[in-house]
Amino acid sequence: QVQLVESGGGLVQAGGSLRLSCAASGRTFSNYAMGWFRQAPGKEREFVGAISWSGGATRYADSVKGRFTVSRDNAENTAYLQMNSLKPEDTAVYYCAAARFLTSQVARYDYWGQGTQVTVSS
Q1: For residues 81 and 94, is the Cβ–Cβ distance under 8 A?
Q2: How confident is the model at residue 104 (pLDDT cuts 50, 70, 90)?
Q3: What does each C-alpha distance from 2 to 5, 33, 51, 99 come to in angstroms?
């Protein structure tokens, strides 16, 4: 089992920045790729970005490329999502998740956090 806890969400104006953290406990954090997803009201959960177990590879949704950055610190068992140039359409509950390999597919992720709300005002 891997337990994941997100933090760092909040209310920000359009154009602003937030950094989300995902603290992991349980099984060896560095064995897992880490992904970030989001879900807006009435919409399906969608992929945002992910990072390989080593941090050597990343993947992003087209909608966030150039604005969001996924990183990780295996010594601290923590993954991060740096969000810059935020837009109102980025408003959603953001989730971190752990998978055996780097993927954008929701179904491939075995462990999920409880989510943190991000609201971007116009």
Answers
A1: yes
A2: very high
A3: 10, 12, 17, 10
